[in-house]
């Protein structure tokens, strides 16, 4: 943007005092030395650097592209807040308490999970299908005959088949969801179970079975149909569908399971011992080389 200003020509004629060589003085009668000026400049520069550092910290704490400071709540409830829409973002909300604090990694008064970046999404895209986020953990008893999973699963199946064709099939049964693939060997074609979520009435939760690679970087991978990395991406998205269908912090749960399956275990999932991940309790129970993750409501 160009700004036009009217410039006043400075008066270059020296005053009689300056012509006579009399130095300019401060109001207290002292003449500022070069050393004093350098100290003043140094103090001003230090103050400016401190201000910039604080601003950078606030922006970084809220994540790239954000200008809010988010206070992490460690997966606990934060009561008494209100939902404020995120500017220029559809279906996204901040959870802000009366003191003006933006909260993240927490649960709101009405039960929704707010991500670590301070934003709650009403829906999340999974294979181009908008999946509604939950405000309570869906127990096995409440899931009934799994009819509640059918509408979204059907849309995801259509999206997946449009890209993978016969390589993956997602099916909802009365007590489990199953991801299968077709394998051809020696002129024989058979189905192989790659991933499943099974109702477990003993814990009023589910068991997630994994027998496939996962592309947990959550981005669309390049490659021809049948490429292992491409399929791994779709398999991870199916895991996200399963976890977000029952948990309010489904992406956090999927990420924790992926990390453990990849031997990184950033969230500390343990063999035979319950560990809290978001609103979910998880324990690892391997069987015949398959990853078996039992999950139930934490609260």
Task: Give the SSE layout.
Layout: H1 16-19, H2 34-62, E1 70-77, E2 82-85, E3 92-96, E4 102-107, E5 113-114, E6 119-121, E7 123-126, E8 129-132, H3 140-143, H4 150-164, E9 169-172, E10 176-185, E11 188-200, E12 205-210, H5 228-246, H6 250-261, E13 275-277, E14 280-284, E15 291-297
Parallel strand pairs: 1-4
Antiparallel strand pairs: 2-3, 3-6, 4-5, 7-8, 9-10, 10-11, 11-12, 12-15, 13-14, 14-15
Helix pairs in contact: 4-5, 5-6
Give a structural overview.
This protein has 299 residues and is α+β, with helices and mostly antiparallel strands. The protein has two domains: 54 residues, no CATH class; 169 residues, no CATH class. Helices cover 28% and strands 28% of the residues. The chain is built from six helices and 15 strands. The strands form four sheets. The chain has a seven-stranded antiparallel β-sheet. A three-stranded mixed β-sheet has the order 1-4-5. The radius of gyration is 30 Å and the shape is elongated. The two termini are 56 Å apart.
């Amino acid at each position: 943007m160009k700004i036009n200003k009217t410039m006043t020509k400075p008066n270059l004629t020296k005053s009689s005092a300056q012509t006579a060589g009399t130095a300019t003085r401060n109001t207290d009668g002292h003449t500022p030395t070069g050393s004093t000026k350098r100290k003043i400049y140094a103090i001003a520069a230090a103050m400016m650097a401190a201000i910039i550092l604080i601003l950078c910290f606030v922006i970084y704490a809220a994540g790239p592209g954000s200008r809010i400071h988010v206070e992490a709540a460690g997966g606990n409830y934060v009561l008494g807040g209100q939902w404020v829409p995120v500017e220029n973002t559809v279906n996204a909300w901040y959870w802000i308490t009366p003191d003006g604090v933006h909260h993240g990694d927490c649960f709101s008064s009405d039960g929704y999970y707010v991500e670590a970046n301070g934003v709650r999404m009403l829906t999340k895209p999974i294979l181009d299908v908008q999946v509604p986020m939950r405000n309570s953990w869906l127990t096995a008893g409440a899931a009934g005959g799994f009819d509640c999973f059918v509408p979204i699963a059907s849309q995801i199946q259509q999206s997946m088949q449009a890209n993978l064709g016969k390589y993956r099939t997602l099916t909802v049964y009365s007590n489990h969801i199953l991801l299968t693939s077709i394998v051809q060997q020696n002129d024989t074609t058979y189905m192989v179970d790659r991933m499943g979520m099974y109702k477990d009435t003993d814990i009023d939760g589910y068991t997630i079975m994994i027998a496939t690679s996962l592309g947990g970087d959550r981005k669309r991978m390049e490659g021809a149909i049948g490429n292992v990395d491409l399929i791994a991406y779709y398999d991870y998205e199916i895991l996200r569908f399963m976890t977000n269908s029952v948990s309010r912090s489904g992406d956090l749960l999927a990420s924790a399971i992926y990390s453990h399956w990849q031997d990184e275990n950033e969230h500390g999932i343990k063999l035979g011992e319950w560990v809290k991940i978001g609103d979910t309790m998880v324990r690892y129970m391997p069987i015949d080389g398959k990853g078996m993750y039992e999950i139930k409501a934490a609260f």
